[in-house]
Specification:
The protein has two domains: 80 residues, no CATH class; 98 residues, 2-Layer Sandwich (Alpha-Beta Plaits). It has five helices and eleven strands.
Length: 198
Amino acid sequence: VLARELIRRIPWFEYETHCGLHQIFVAAAGNGWQRPEADAQGTMYISRRTKLILRLPKARVDEAAKALLGVELDLNGSPIIVGKSKTRPLSTLTTLFSRYVIADSSHDEAAFTQYVAAQLRELDIRVRKLLCGKSGVLWTPDGDLQVRSVMLADLDVEESVRLQQHGIGPGRHLGCGLFIPHKGIEAVSSKQSDGHKD
């Protein structure tokens, strides 16, 4: 829904290479409220400080900022107003994480891993450490998407920046295939061994 509203204001956002929308996440629970799962159609309650983060090429940053400043976006009857923006450079950290990468529903984990590795090779990125999460479902107004999370570690800085610029797979405007810096693959392994998961 948010993606549709953005595209209505900046139509090029849906199709232009290197554009993407980072998913908005809120606290999992609080004051008796539970955050809806990604495959649900429930309402998420966001604070005034919630950030709308777009991944844009430099040539489009000023245009997007001007087009969206002060604009009211209608999210199924719940309006949000876009405030002032600021530019943030891509990270130089060498462990990256994508919460949602669109997967073929017929792919098991091994096939999905091969698909991700092939996408990375096209970007001239060498796979050293690759961790794929469990299969899940991301709800969209146009239908459910099969997704998996992906973590990559031990990239070099140039590879990290390149992957943040390009992402992998389709659906960038829905928040899929976009990579963000992460604390590290060892921390995730430790949490999983303790019975926790991100």
